[in-house]
From TrEMBL:
The lineage of its organism: Bacteria, Pseudomonadati, Bacteroidota, Flavobacteriia, Flavobacteriales. Residues 95-221 form the Tetracyclin repressor-like C-terminal domain. It comes from Dokdonia donghaensis DSW-1. It holds the Pfam family TetR_C_23. This is Heat-shock protein.
Amino acid sequence: MATVKKTTKKTTAKKKTVNAQMLITAYMEYVLEHGEEPKTIYKFCKEHNIEEAEFYKYFGSFQNLKAGIWNAFHTNTVGVLHKNSDFESYTNKDKMLSYFFTMFEMLTANRSYVLVALDQHKNMLKNMSQLKELRGHLTSFAADLIEAGNDEKNYKITKNPVRLFKEGAWVQFLFLLKYWMEDNSPAFEKTDVAIEKSINAIFDIFETTPLESIIDFGKFLFKENFTMAK
């Protein structure tokens, strides 16, 4: 009779695939569960069973990783826009509107993380430093729109100031971000209204069209600030 040998299977733990997205996801989950960032990169890596050196391949610090999260919001926003085959035929104003609407959809999908991330330090400058790289991406996007519009104009005097517009777009984003963080309307519909009115206003300034939308935006701000102050 043939003897049957027992075989034992060796099970080995599947090694985690470490990349920037994996680290971002793990970091965001930690912040959501604990309400704060990990104490050290060493502890963070040990908890996720990865080598510390693997972390440093992608990010030099948690601050660098946090900036990467905001960069990802921008990258994903632009990716969504270009999936729409009609996007390139939009007017510059509609492109900017689409960018802001899509960006705030991204932020809303990650609202719990964003609120914690922007409220970690009493020093507002420390909270806002994670947006430094996003600022570069957003202002570049805005500058490209204005430069494209300027290329269609024959006279230098009719061209719009690129630097002024792109910096205005960043200030506008910061205003809308703060407004969105304080917005408690259903589906953040008041933020949608603020986005539309503010974009209309800034483009009316640059296109020197009637100032009805600027006055309309001013009335909206007065009404909302008065309501929130109650």
